[in-house]
Amino acid sequence: MPGIHQFDTTMRLLHKVLDLRQKNQEIIGSNIANAETPGYSAQTFSFEQQLHSALSDNDLRAVVTQPNHIPLAPASLDQVSGTVTTTRDATGIGDENSVSVDQEMVNLSQNQILYEAAVTMLNKKLAMVKYTVNGGA
User: Which residues pair with 86 in a beta bridge?
Assistant: First the structure.
């Protein structure tokens, strides 16, 4: 039954996206909270490329042939965890804090919009299930 598998994949994807967006929110919040901390290095969280790689139906996916090999991309949705990158202050002046509050506020707003979009899609998906279970009533 390909329809059920597709539904299950969509639900798992939305759940994973919500988890990753929450982690991104925490990192952005930490950056904003430490905007005045001398020597603090801003962090960024990215997961979109890993998510895309895990979802692609490419038959040419790299295969790990030895247990000590490092996988090139996540093999499944469950393995997507994102990457935290630290940005050090490159100006060499001031307190060596690399947080730009303006940029972090933009990142915060963008992340919130994308989180709410995922919640809306999940709610619509659940409403469709409820409609179907109730026999279209």
Answer: 43
Sign of the torsion formed by the C-alpha atoms of 54, 57, 58 and 62 = positive
State the Cα–Cα distance between residues 133 and 121, nearest whole angstrom. 18
* CA 53-59-63 angle, 5° bins: 75
- What is the pTM for the complete model shown? 0.79
Instruction: Tell me the C-alpha to C-alpha distance, in Å, between residue 112 and each of 10, 26, 39, 86, 96.
Output: 20, 11, 28, 21, 28
Beta-ladder partners of 45 = 84
Which SS3 state, helix, strand or coil, does residue 43 take?
A: strand
Reported as a single tens digit per residue, the pLDDT across 45-90 is: 999 999 988 887 554 455 666 666 655 555 678 889 999 999 998 8
